[in-house]
Amino acid sequence: MDQDVSACLGADLLSQLAAIVGPDGILSGDALAPVDPGYDPANLAAGLMLSPRSAEEVSRILALCQAMAIPVVPQGGRTGLVAGGVTSPGEIILSTRRLDRIVEIDPVGRTALVEAGVTLEALQEAAARHGLSPGIDLAARGSATIGGMIATNAGGIEAFRHGTMRDRLLGIEFVLADGTVVSDLGRVLKNNTGYDLKDLVAGSEGTLGVVTRAVLRLDRATRPAATALLALPSIDDALAVANRLRDRFAGRLRALEVMWRDYAAAVAGQHGQALADFGIAEQPLYLLVELDRDEDLDIAEKLALELETLADRGVVADAVIAQNERQRRMLWLIREDSEAIERAWPGAQSFDVSVPLPALGSYADRIARELPALSWAFGSSSSATWPMAICT
């Protein structure tokens, strides 16, 4: 055991914690070196990580730490951008990495019972074997965990269609700070009994308890039929196009992602490309559109005809439709590789802000006006080093 950790917490407490999780469930000092800290190196600053295998072990850890007045910081995949997983010496990291079982996929009830440390990608793959999907997706799918996504009420790419994690959640099990286990693993959509505890926990950022298991709604899995990148003159045009596509392709629209030019160009540049390399003209905004398959329609052809109409009306300046899976992945790379901004501008700030659609244009314009002043205030030599990295 690391000497610094022993000095902070005491050998007796560490011995009791080790007895709860076993030798494979406790990491400290050099043993933590191989662990990816995520977006903030301070996530591992506590120097001690416990990884329980059950709600009962979580309960014993929290009860002991509360009795000893030891702060505990829950962590999932450490993909958050708001420092929710940051720790300090004298604290304890409670990792859900070993709570990684997919307990059950129910294809009839279309539900999944999973432990908190299951990654989104693992759940997607397990559900897909039954022709189902969790109805939520985000770029960090390979490392983001279900417990963390519940705690942050994650939204992701399909939120406009299926809602956020709060909307996907049917039941939940969590552990309070004193070790009390609260279990309400309901599996029905219609439940009008009493207070809705899962709605309180979703989005609570770990302040009300540690999520250990959850029941999630599943939907029929769909496959993309057409993916296109549209170049647009203005945010008003983008909103108009988005509304028209929602009407014309009701029930088939898989994704609608608006990206400002500075963001799209910065990400493409990190991959050694210019936006022109994608075969699309340079415009202030870009709209990434993806549609699901339809057995009765050629969705790609219908989208192409719709884009021609929109181009004739002047609201779409240019567009490119992916012709194969490689091109589709390249288009999605522009949207999903937001880490490219961090690579180009280390320490860049990232915010997830919800804005009513009518206010989106004025909100972005205000940021563009005020950002240069902030760059000078924080010592940047030029406002040009601060990209307008905004996407929806």
Total number of β-strand segments?
A: 15
Briefly note the structural class of the backbone.
alpha+beta
CATH fold type of the largest domain: Uridine Diphospho-n-acetylenolpyruvylglucosamine Reductase, domain 3
Overall helicity = 25-40%
* Strand portion: 15-25%
SSE pattern, N- to C-terminal: HHEEHEEEEHEHHHEEHEEEHEHEHEHHH
How are the strands ordered across the major sheet?
5-6-10-8-9
What value does the average pLDDT take? 89
Low-pLDDT windows of residues: 381-392
Separation of the first and last Cα atoms: 45 Å
Q: Give the biggest beta sheet.
A: 5 strands, antiparallel
Radius of gyration: 23 Å
Give the second-level CATH assignment, the architecture of the largest domain: 2-Layer Sandwich
Could you characterize what this model shows?
This protein is of the alpha+beta class. 34% of the residues lie in helices and 19% in strands. It has 14 helices and 15 strands. The strands form four sheets. A five-stranded antiparallel sheet has the order 5-6-10-8-9. The radius of gyration is 23 Å and the shape is globular.
Which labels suit this protein?
single chain; 392 residues; alpha+beta; Uridine Diphospho-n-acetylenolpyruvylglucosamine Reductase, domain 3; Alpha-Beta Plaits; 3 domains; five-stranded antiparallel beta sheet; disordered C terminus
Helices and strands, with pairings:
Elements: H1 3-9, H2 11-21, E1 26-28, E2 48-50, H3 55-67, E3 72-75, E4 92-95, E5 102-106, E6 111-115, H4 120-128, E7 132-133, H5 146-151, H6 159-162, H7 165-168, E8 169-175, E9 181-184, H8 197-201, E10 210-217, E11 219-220, E12 224-232, H9 235-248, E13 253-260, H10 261-270, E14 285-292, H11 299-312, E15 318-321, H12 325-336, H13 339-344, H14 360-377
